[in-house]
Amino acid sequence: MQALNNGDLEPTERQKKKAIELLEAFLKELREIRILDPACGSGNFLYVTLDLLKGLESEVLKRLADVAGAEQMRLDIDQVNPSQFLGIEINPRAAAIADLVIWIGYLQWHFRRFGDLPPVEPVLREYKNIQQGDAVLEYDPVVDSWQKPEWEKADYIVSNPPFIGTKKVKKVYGENYINTLRSVYQDLPATIDYVMYW
C-alpha cells in the first residue's frame, strides 16, 4: 500500500486485482442463485426477492466501479434475471400473473439502471419457471397413484403457503383431497395444519 496525502493508504494494483476477482466471483454466484416459491400466488414474494437481489447486484457493480475505476455497465442477460425465480401455483390465472410480475420487476430495474436504453431482444423470454399445479399432491397416471411432487432444485425457498387448521381443512379442500394427502404423507401426523405439508 502507498500513503496518500491525507494519510489514507491506497491499495496496490495486486490488491485491486484481487478485490475485482472476489467481487466478480460474488457477482457470478449471485447471478446463479435459484429461488423457489412453492405457493407463489401472483408472485409477490418472488417480486420482492428479485428486487432485493437486483439491489445487491447494483451494490456489487458500484463497488466494482469504485475499485476498477470504471463503471461496469454491460447490457446483456448475464445479470440477475427472471430465469432464477421459480414458482408453483395451483391457480392457473395467478401462475400466469406471477410470471408477468417477475418480468415487470426485472424491466423496472433495467430502466432504473440503463434509462431509455431498450433491453436486449427478445425483451420477454419464456423460461417456464412458474409451474401451474399443486405443490404437495400430484397424480401420476403412469403408476395410477397419488404422490409427492418433485420440486425444481433451488438454493433458497421463500414462501407463504396457506395456513389452514386441521378443523377447517376438510371444509376448504374436501374430504377426498385431505384423505388422499394424508395417505401420501403417512409419515406426518393427521392432526397437523395444512401448511405443514410444505
Summarize the helices and strands and which ones pair or pack.
Blueprint: E1 2-3, E2 9-10, H1 13-30, E3 35-37, H2 44-68, E4 85-89, H3 92-114, E5 130-132, E6 138-140, E7 145-147, E8 156-157, H4 169-173, H5 175-184
Parallel strand pairs: 3-4, 3-8, 4-5
Antiparallel strand pairs: 1-2, 6-7
Helix pairs in contact: 1-2, 2-3
Task: Give a short overview.
This protein has helices at residues 13-30, 44-68, 92-114, 169-173, 175-184, and strands at 2-3, 9-10, 35-37, 85-89, 130-132, 138-140, 145-147, 156-157. The protein is α/β, with parallel strands linked by helices and 198 residues long. The protein has a domain at 11-135.
